[in-house]
Design goal:
- Chain B: This is Iron-regulated ABC transporter membrane component SufB.
- The complex is a heterodimer of chains A (about 450) and B (about 475).
- Chain A is built from ten helices and 21 strands.
- Chain A is α/β, with parallel strands linked by helices.
- Chain A has two domains: about 270 residues, no CATH class; about 70 residues, no CATH class.
- In chain A, a hairpin with a 2-residue loop joins β2 and β3.
- Chain A starts with a helix and ends with a helix.
- Chain B has one domain.
- In chain B, α3 packs antiparallel against α9.
- By secondary structure, chain B is an alpha/beta fold.
- In chain B, about 55% of the residues are buried.
- Chain B is globular and about 70 Å long.
- In chain B, the strands form three sheets. Chain B has a ten-stranded mixed β-sheet. A six-stranded parallel barrel of chain B has the order 13-15-18-21-19-16.
- Chain B contains 13 helices and 24 strands.
- The termini of chain B are close together.
- Classes of the chains: A alpha/beta (about 450), B alpha/beta (about 475).
- Chains A and B meet through β20 and β21 of A and β23 and β24 of B.
- β20 of chain A pairs antiparallel with β23 of chain B.
């Protein structure tokens, strides 16, 4: 039996248990399955997957979770200590007990997908799948075939959400490996403003597969700050396809922070369709052990005077493998474009590997586009300088590594998020240090 | 500039486009084992060479043309190409310029390269390739004195078989890629250079290529070997007459540098780019690779690419030897409907290897240009360094400029930097020049030449002058 067939059999099994569905869902499910069958799992001879081998996913036999039981104590420890509106999913299944929506302000809807479909499936059916169709990748097709849970976030025009909206995805350790295909839909009305935090985390030893598809629609002047904090257990597999459509003067700020997961692939695509639209991509990936982290980003400048700025930092230790592929496409007649792209990588071990490709495809002449990529290691002189000030070697290296990530992390204004990153990257630093001051000093060394 | 003037400039016919009427001895179009046997026999090659060619041919049959490049052209019918063409009377080769067919000399005159004058004035030995057979080789004696071998590859196969057998295909194996396999099966000529241990070649070596007979693909094979502490600078330049049908050119260049050896390879490429509708023009699919086999060896590629309808070319360096150095300096200009997908590969294998890449791309008209490069640092390449700078300049809003730099870094002591920019000619720069009485076109030429300076200064003197002129000619009519 082929790998693809095993997944299709799981789908047939699941479909048999399903009750009646609106016809459009059934039809898309079918289209997704057909496309997945036709494409098959990607292999390394496909340019987009040149450096990422997904056989570990293809050859596994994943079941689908049926409940959302999770130890409240563990959940509490994993949850970000933030005052927020929160939806929690356990292996893809909605967990009302771990969710907290409080009183949502007027004009804000945060719903599990299943409930949004129950309430008004047609309102979901319109936008869903418009940005990320089944042709995007075989994983997007697979997600479409299996879609049943996820989140819908709707912001009425001119709504400013007072607290962050957190979508928390928990992965359980268990005998049977499971897969989930969450689907997130965000519709931000004109001049609305919100912070969305997507948090992937789980129990040590979990080895599941998350295949996420996320569609974000920003109407005119909408502003969305999107944190994706991926701290999945080290054996988890994580594939995410995120597509953002931006109307005139909208602004999308992404923090794509990857600390966990054994095999990780993020696809981030922005369509800047209206004049003045702006996309800011900040990224950090930290790999250790045998982690494989692949970030593919694409910004389509489809309109006049659109802006994009991208800054990805990679830190790789042990035998970790990092991949960065950033692409900017400037369409013909999209004039007065500014696009900047930068990827800097730090290799901490001789067996770590980074494959990076910052691409520009430009069909208009009145543009200012630049990209850069660098790979290097910690400055031994800076390590020495810190040691002469009585800091032990391990801490010194931790601090310098943190300083390397500083350019991205200093833009993060949620302490709960930056603390997680600091802990993962630099380890637990002795409390007697004034961390902020030291990081600054270390930054100065790095620059000097 | 008045639009009418501009129109005229744009329509200006290709200056180097003319056809010399020489009866060629040409085989009918098509490729099979017989064609290869014919070529091999015609060249008086030993049995092992024929076998080598056939092996390449059989590998080629199993391969498919690459499709990953950012290029758009109709499929090539390899059976419609004639694989051998030689000027008449190959048996009584001229020994000096006086014996050269006057029509040939006339062609050189038209090109503005008076061979004897040039050779005498510049002190350059010229191995002129007219179609597929070397017609004349000068300064041979002087080179012989120094112990340098500089001859056509066919002669080398006959006269120095052990050297050829040792090095041919050792850098670009027969099955390396589709076009290299094709070249290995059917190559008809090219140059062979061997610089023995400790010798610095007393002059710059140069070959002028020229594609002539219609429907004849040209398959050059160049092999340059520098033994320990040897040094050579090699110049390659070419123009081609105007043709209606696409001409295929699939050359292979192999460079081998042993311990402390230094090879500098410079190219000015100005083949017919096709007419204003993109009709005709040369298809240029070239495999160029240098092997820094020895410690502290040094290979440098410099290219100025202005011609050809399609360019597919990635001069590369395999940095195997400890502390070996690879360099790539490139200016690529595309206008009209030209398409170029070009760049380099720097493969760091040995410890302490260093490489520098400077690539300047200028796109005008309705052309499309891509820089595609790879910097790979292997796990054993401790302290490898690379610096890459690739800039694109866009002239007009109907062209495209793209950058695809690949970096594969597998060593934590590596330092790799890549920088790229894409922009148009600054309005303020133009205004500055014009306000000082410099005409628009001159101002653009000046700015473009400045943009390319980093590369031009790497070119040998004679080429640098030619390259600047060529750049101006290529961009004529592109600005308005």
């Amino acid at each position: 039996m082929s790998d693809e067939q095993r997944f299709l059999d799981r789908l047939a099994e699941r479909n048999a248990q399903r009750g009646d569905e609106p016809t459009w869902i059934a039809a898309r499910r079918q289209a997704g399955a057909a496309r997945f069958e036709a494409l098959g799992f990607p292999h390394r001879r496909i340019e987009e997957w040149k450096y990422t081998d997904v056989r570990d996913i293809a050859r596994s036999d994943f079941a689908l979770a049926t409940d959302a039981e999770f130890s409240p104590a563990t959940a509490a420890a994993l949850t970000l200590p933030l005052d927020a509106y929160r939806l929690t999913f356990v292996d893809g299944v909605f967990a009302p007990a771990l969710s907290d929506l409080g009183a949502l302000p007027e004009g804000v809807q945060v719903l599990p997908l299943s409930r949004a479909l129950e309430e008004n499936h047609e309102a979901v059916g319109g936008p869903l799948g418009r940005l990320t169709g089944v042709d995007f990748s075989s994983f997007a097709a697979l997600n479409t075939a299996f879609m049943e849970e996820g989140a819908v976030v709707r912001l009425a025009p001119r709504t400013v959400v007072d607290k962050p909206i957190v979508l928390q995805f928990l992965s359980r350790a268990g005998e049977q490996e499971v897969m989930s295909h969450p689907r997130i839909l965000v519709e931000a009305g004109g001049r609305s403003e919100a912070t969305l935090i997507e948090h992937h985390v789980g129990e040590d030893g979990a080895a599941n597969f998350t295949n996420l598809v996320e569609e974000i629609i920003l109407e005119r002047g909408a502003i969305l700050t999107h944190y994706k904090l991926q701290e999945a257990p080290l054996k988890d597999r994580h594939i995410a396809s995120i597509h953002i459509e931006q109307a005139r003067d909208s602004r999308y700020v992404s923090f794509n922070l990857n600390l966990g997961g054994g095999l990780v692939r993020n696809d981030l695509v922005s369509d800047l369709n209206g004049e003045g639209a702006e996309a800011i991509y900040n990224g950090l990936f930290y790999g250790q052990g045998r982690q494989h982290v692949d970030n593919h980003t694409l910004v389509n400048h489809n309109a006049l005077r659109t802006f994009s700025r991208e800054n990805y930092k990679g830190i790789l230790d042990d035998r970790a493998h990092g991949v960065f592929n950033g692409k900017v496409i400037v369409k013909r007649d999209s004039q007065q474009i500014e696009a900047e792209q930068s990827n800097a990588n730090l290799l901490l071990s001789d067996r770590a590997e980074i494959d990076t490709k910052p691409e520009l495809e430009i069909y208009a002449d009145d543009v200012k586009c630049a990209h850069g990529a660098t790979t290097g290691q910690l400055d031994e002189e800076a390590v020495y300088a810190l040691r002469t000030r009585g800091i032990d070697e391990q801490t010194a290296r931790g601090l310098l590594t943190l300083a390397f990530a500083g350019e991205v992390m200093e833009l993060v204004d949620l302490d709960a998020v930056s603390e997680r990153v600091e802990l993962a990257v630099a380890g637990k630093l002795p409390e007697r240090f004034n961390l902020a001051g030291l990081v600054e000093t270390a930054s100065a060394f790095n620059e000097g | 500039m008045a639009s009418q003037e501009m129109e005229e400039l744009v329509r200006r016919e290709y200056k180097e486009g003319f056809v010399t009427d020489i009866e060629s001895e040409t085989v009918p179009p098509g490729l099979d084992e017989d064609t290869i046997a014919f070529i091999s026999k015609k060249k008086g090659e030993p049995e092992w060479m024929l076998e080598w060619r056939l092996k390449a041919y059989h590998q080629w049959l199993k391969m498919t043309p690459p499709s990953w490049a950012h290029l758009d052209y109709p499929p090539i019918d390899y059976q419609a190409i004639s694989y051998y063409s030689a000027p008449k009377r190959p048996e009584d080769r001229p020994q000096s310029l006086d014996e050269v067919d006057p029509k040939l000399l006339e062609t050189y005159e038209k090109l503005g390269i008076p061979l004897h004058e040039r050779a005498a004035l510049a002190g350059v030995a010229v191995d002129a390739v007219f179609d597929s057979v070397s017609v004349t080789t000068t300064f041979k004696e002087k080179l012989q004195e120094a112990g340098v071998i500089f001859c056509s590859i066919s002669e080398a196969i006959r006269d120095y078989p052990e050297l050829v057998q040792q090095y041919l295909g050792s850098v670009v194996p027969q099955g390396d890629n589709y076009f290299a396999a094709l070249n290995s099966a059917v190559f008809t000529d090219g140059s062979f250079v061997f610089v023995p241990e400790g010798v610095t070649c007393p002059m710059e070596l140069s070959t002028y290529f020229r594609i002539n007979a219609a429907n004849t693909g040209q398959f050059e094979r160049t092999l340059i070997v520098c033994e320990s502490r040897a040094e050579v600078s090699y110049l390659e330049g070419c123009t081609a007459p105007q043709r209606d049908e696409n001409q295929l050119h699939a050359a292979v260049v192999e460079l081998v540098a042993l311990d402390d050896a230094k090879i500098k390879y410079s190219t000015v490429q100005n083949w017919y780019p096709g007419d204003e509708d993109g009709k005709g023009g040369i298809y240029n699919f070239v495999t160029k690779r240098g092997d820094c086999r020895g410690d502290r060896s040094h290979i440098s590629w410099t290219q100025v690419e202005t011609g050809s309808a399609i360019t597919w070319k990635y001069p590369s360096c395999m940095l195997r030897g400890r502390d070996s150095v690879g360099e790539f300096y490139s200016v690529a200009v595309t206008n009209g409907r030209q398409q170029a997908d070009t760049g380099t590969k720097m493969i760091h294998i040995g410890e302490g290897t260093r490489s520098t890449i400077v690539s300047k791309g200028i796109a005008a008209g309705r052309s499309d240009q891509s820089y595609r490069g790879l910097v790979k640092v292997g796990p054993r390449a401790k302290n490898a360094r690379n610096f890459t700078q690739c800039d694109s300049l866009l002239i007009g809003d109907t062209c495209g400029a793209h950058t695809f730099p690949y970096q594969e870094i597998g060593n934590s002591s590596a330092k790799v930097e890549h920088e790229a920019t894409t922009s148009k000619i600054g309005e303020d720069q133009l205004f500055y020049c014009q306000s000082r009485g410099i005409g628009e076109e001159d101002a653009v030429n000046m700015i473009v030449n400045g943009f390319c300076k980093d590369v031009f200064q790497e070119l040998p003197m004679e080429f640098a002058v030619e390259a600047e002129a060529l750049l101006n000619v290529t961009l004529e009519g592109a600005v308005g």
